[in-house]
Amino acid sequence: MFALRNLKNGAVIRPLSKHFKTGSSLMREISLLTEVDDNNSTHQMFTVGGKNGFLPRQEPLPELPEKYSALESLLQRMPMQLADGSPGLLASGQFGDAVRDELPIYDVDSLTDQRLLSALFRDYTFAASAYLLEPCDILYRSQSDYGLGRKVLPKNIAVPLVKVSNKINSKPFMEYALSYALYNYKKISDAGGLIYDNLALIRAFAGSESEKGFVLNHVTMVSHSPGLVRFAVGSLNAIEANDREKFNSQMSGLFETYESINKEMEMMWSRSVPEDYVKFRTFIMGTKNQTMFPDGVIYEGVSDNPVTYRGESGANDSMVPLGDNLLQISELMPENPLTAVLRDFRSYRPTNHREFLDYVQAKAQQLRLKEYAMKDANSAAIYLSNIDQIRAFRHRHWNFTKEYIIKHTSHPVATGGSPIVTWLPNQLNAVLDLINEVSNNIDRQKLSESNSVRVEEITKRAQAQKRFLDREVASLKTKFKNQDRTE
Ligand code: HEM
């Protein structure tokens, strides 16, 4: 059995149970583990830990076993451009026919090995998205219009996909962590680290350098997340022990980790060319709040009732939500339909991530992290610096969205189903407002010299960005329709 102790280096948090509820008295139920039983193949792949952070606890399985060779072969021949430069099935619009002709209904009933189940989930979701969106991609390439997707997911994908999803507790659709990004990398050299030059993609739609850069840049950012997990838990523990010095050092560690993540994010510009993004983006679109699927999708052999799901999106990453929850930003988001989308996004992630984030949110509320930070001017400055890192992330991210998407398409909805010009600014605005509020409540006289300069810089920048953002969104709203529509 696992020992329930505090999180330390190398620890994982137990795949949480049906028993978890948010509420102060139930906090202990998410007791943190100190030992990983890597040999236990029935433990889910995504267990948050001080060693692996938000990445899977074992490297993703890069290739399916021989028994699934028809699926493996389809996925290897699928990308627009294959490794040798020749066109794949999606380039000629032959993927759908190949699925119908070649793919048996694999029996997955007896499977319990989570590493294999996760690989099958990744691969069936790739096949499902390619199948459903292939007609949209063909039309978009000639007319910059997505038209309609396929309405029925055939049973040779739908049936095993739903079964595998149930076994790993996810929705039966392409997902950020479990499919496209965080379960889609392999190391080139086993001995090497999780750095960009040592990583390759397992599956792809376009097969281009830009798609590789887009996906793997997420992975290299998330490779810093073990620090986030350790410092977040450390900050909460420090408040519980009323140890201000430790609180400040843990929050400083958190700040430095976010800074490294933001620095890594900046590499996106050189690793993935903005003009290329719309070429593979079609395949990561969802079926919810998208014109391509006005009636949803029927999963043949599963149910006659159509279903819809949000598409793959970094919005399902856990690093920024961790900051939002720990720093008590989440509860300050405005109550509006856009914020409801933010909450809905949070259900599209591995269960253990979700439970960890819920835990952090409830614990930060219970311990009143913000209030604790604000009681001491220098703690407040470090707290503000962390909020500023969340701002830096959202600000750069908004710039990505303008350069990679808004400049190249008039489609009004992002892959996750959020309105393209209002949703991201909704959260960025809330963070800018919070910076203003926190900064106004810091007693500047009590700050060290360096913290004084830091607070001043952060405040001025946030005020300037706020003025600019408001004008920018007002202008963009005149060009994009239905930007208040979220369902
Ligand atoms: C070219 C690069 C990128 C583009 C064009 C882009 C685009 C978008 C868009 C349009 C959304 C809105 C949600 C939706 O899909 O409906 C979104 C959300 C989000 N993406 Fe990205 N993204 C990029 C890179 C990244 C990276 C590298 C990360 C790192 C993990 C990331 C994390 C997020 C997060 C956390 C959100 C939610 C933002 C919030 O809570 O305010 N994205 N992204």
UniProtKB/TrEMBL annotation:
Q: Name one GO biological process term.
A: L-tryptophan catabolic process to kynurenine
Q: Which UniProt keywords apply?
A: Heme, Iron, Metal-binding
Q: Where does heme b bind?
A: H397
InterPro entries the UniProt entry points to:
Indolamine_dOase (IPR000898), Trp/Indoleamine_2_3_dOase-like (IPR037217)
GO MF annotations in UniProt: heme binding; metal ion binding; oxidoreductase activity, acting on single donors with incorporation of molecular oxygen, incorporation of two atoms of oxygen
Known Gene3D superfamilies for this protein?
1.20.58.480
A UniProt-annotated Pfam family: IDO
PANTHER family per the UniProt record, alphabetical: INDOLEAMINE 2,3-DIOXYGENASE
Task: Family membership, please give it.
Answer: Belongs to the indoleamine 2,3-dioxygenase family.
Protein name in the entry: Indoleamine 2,3-dioxygenase 1
* Species of origin: Pseudolycoriella hygida
Instruction: State the taxonomy lineage.
Output: Eukaryota, Metazoa, Ecdysozoa, Arthropoda, Hexapoda
